[in-house]
Amino acid sequence: MPTFHYKAYSASGASVSGTIEADSERQALAQVKAKGLIPREAHEEGAADTAAASFSFQRGISAADLSLFTRQLATLVASSVPLYEAMGSLYEQQETGALKKVLARVGARIAEGASLSRAFAAEPKVFGESYVSMVSAGEASGALDTVLDRLADFLEEQDQVRSRVSSALAYPILMVLVGGGVMMFLLTVVIPKIVVVFEDSKAALPWITIALIKLSHFLRGWWWLLAGLTIATVPLYRKAMLRDNLRLKRDDLLLRLPLAGGMLQRLILSRFARVLGLLLASGVPIIRALEITSDVLVNRVYRLFLQGVMEDVAQGGNLSDSLRKNPLFPPLLVHLIGVGEKGGALEAMLLKAGIAYEREFNTRLTRLMGLMEPLLVLAMGVAVGIVVMAVLLPIFEMNELVK
């Protein structure tokens, strides 16, 4: 029988960990609950950690495909179509691809008597922990169609945010690539041909021309070194990011960046508020909802702080009081959460806060991109201007000598 390592909270709110033997992860969690503990996680000994570390609910299948499937399933469930028939119908209309294969396996598990959440849980690369937990809560509350609709809305909104960011970054990236290509062409092809004229004249050259010539020689002679360092940076960075302390430092640095750090914080706060509000509205217990939300957040600084928040809430503390201890959560969000706790509408306040921070992120992104476009054009103009000046200054001096 496999051995599982588990982490849980005791009745007093203290963090507890240990090992337990069980046939499956769900059985291990059930045994932990039977001990009077609140389980956080359970992983089989020797197995790879499959906790959700992605920036979305899913991996391996696009958010657009998953949201469309979720919306269609919600419609069929709301129409009282049995789950097995609904899954079969969605499988038949799905084009050949990864999702079709997944639906075939999910339908087979449902036919064997598994619940929808258990069938989804067996496909962790597609249906993340947050997705499965919400479906499970919807099944328990009898509001599966409503939960699926909320999930579809969330996935569509996150896909829209991702598309906005991609569209906003496309122009600056293109400008940088084109500008870099133009500069490389000038320095490695054009400048060396012009330099021959200056070297033959034996005249003293301006410092800017000398610097440009040395840079041109370096690029022509050592381009392979720069290319090798650039290529090697990717695997070295990925290897470094496997260490938790380096990832924590990187995430902390990202939050401190001017302009971009503030935008990233708004995006994280929007994700935190919307995911937590969505989970609570679906009937997921707050400790479990905080745990899932922590996994969904990519930034390790927020994850580390939320672990302490979970312990405070498990001991009977208020969510707003726990969040108030860290400046990562602004006073407005903390105040809205406090009002929601007092009025019994925490999930509604969280969803409103999530929408507000998403709008603020979109506004800041639009302003930043509007500022970056002329700045990039100006930077390209300055770079080309420096090259032109370095070439023309010696020519002007040679003309003066001739006169």
Shape: elongated
Q: How are helices and strands ordered from N to C?
A: EEHEHHHHHHHHHHHHHH
Instruction: State the helix count.
Output: 15
Q: In the residues, how many domains can be counted? A: 3
| CATH fold-level topology of the largest domain | Receptor-associated Protein
- Low-confidence stretches are 47-59
Strand content: 5-15%
What structural class is derived from the secondary structure elements? mainly alpha
Tell me the helix content. over 70%
Number of strands: 3
Distance between the termini: 96 Å
* Radius of gyration, in angstroms, nearest whole number: 28 Å
The CATH class of the largest domain is identified as: Mainly Alpha
Q: Major sheet, described briefly? A: 3 strands, antiparallel
Strand order of the largest sheet: 2-1-3
What's the name of the CATH homologous superfamily of the largest domain?
A: Type II secretion system (T2SS), domain F
